[in-house]
Amino acid sequence: MDLGMTIVVLVIILLCIMPFVIMHYNKVNKKKKMLQSLTKIAQQHNCTISQHEFCSDFVLGIDESRNFVFFFKQTKEESISEFVDLSETRMCQAVKQARNVNSGSSSYSIIKRVELLFLPISKNKEEARFVLYDEEIDRQLSEELELVDNWVKRINTRIKAKK
Length: 163
What we know:
The protein is α+β, with helices and mostly antiparallel strands. The chain has helices at 2-44, 144-161, and strands at residues 51-55, 58-63, 68-74, 79-85, 89-103, 106-120, 128-134.
C-alpha cells in the first residue's frame, strides 16, 4: 500500500512539474531560434554579434568591431529584421509614446509604443526605427523601457567613440 501511494504521489508531482519544464524548454528554443536569425542577418553584412539581449519577442545585437546594430522580432504574423550602420548615424534616441487615461478623479498614462530611433548623419537619408513595443501588436509591456534606455546609452557611447 505504501509503495502504491508513493508511486501515485510521484506521478502527481511529475504531472504538476511537467508544464513548467515544457514552458522553459519552449522559451529556450525560441531564444535560440531568434539568436540564430539575428546571427544570420549579421553574417549577411559580414558582421558577428558581439553582444545581444533578449526581451519578450525580440532580440537586439551589436557588432562592436564593425559598429552595426541588428534587430530581429518574431510576431505571429511576420518576422522583422533590421540593421543600422552606426558609422552613418549621429545619434540614437529612445522614443516612448504614451496616452493619458482619466479614471474618475485620477489619471494615468499608458505606454503605446517604445522605439529605438537612429538619426542619420546625412540629411538625405531617412531615420531608422526599431519598434520594440507596440500596444496594438504586443500583448504586454515587459522590460522594454529599461532595455531601450540601456541600449541608447550603449549605442551613443559607440557612436561617440568612433568620432
